[in-house]
Queue: 2 jobs
Job 1
Amino acid sequence: MSGIAPVGIQGIAPVEHGPRTSKTDLGDAFAQALSDARGLEKDATGQAERFAQGDPSVGIHEVVIASEKANIAVRYATTLKNKALDAYRELMNTQV
């Protein structure tokens, strides 16, 4: 089957195997995750306050969606931290 490019499922591009061209800094990943969570929490709080004040442009569904987005962002940041700590502990317990 040489010469035939692999095709993704339902328009999803196939995974490229090979060296990565960009590097992700763990500190940057933490900072971005926390920044995203903070921003989404502020947005959710703002929408909840506007809804509570009777703003007709904000529906309860928008408040719930904003709250869930913030919840997911916080859980992601927490999971990222926990995985990094687990990896650190595993490295520290590795005998040389």
Job 2
Amino acid sequence: MRRFGLILAGAALVVAACSSSTGSAPVTILPAAPAGSSSAPGATSQAANPTTGAVSGGSHQFAATLTVTGAVKFTLSFTQSLSVLPACSALAKTGFSSNTWSIPQPNTQDSKLNWNVQPYTGPGTYSDTSTFGNSVELTGPKGDEYDQVDSSVGSVTVNADGSGSATFKDLEDSDTKAVSGSETWTCS
């Protein structure tokens, strides 16, 4: 049923390289936000060295909020360190590796959304499910897993500054219970 193969294995390596417990804010699972409300954290920017793309004066990070509705409901706000990667705008142009963009993930095993876009060709909106390579997988707070199926719909938007959003509909578990939701992030 799952065809995660090398894409998911590669994403795990990218996430492991990107994640850092040093300086990361704790992950907080909150009740789902009411419809129409915005709980995305604010962000500040840092200047990047135009020659190397490295951020001066410290590390840079994603600050993200994942909201899930359906069979499970939760909101998760977290940060992901990007200190080993290029500055936000350079990362938005190139992606993580091998023409792949991976949406931000928390440094926790409790809940997360794995999602890769490949081939990633730079900032823009990706909604053709063939670019997701069956990589969309949500792990809920109780360890329940929801995967991309033929009827799933999704879209990932990456902006030129590295910020973005992802929306998904109808990821299913083994009992065909479905979840939908979104993730938004800033890069600073």
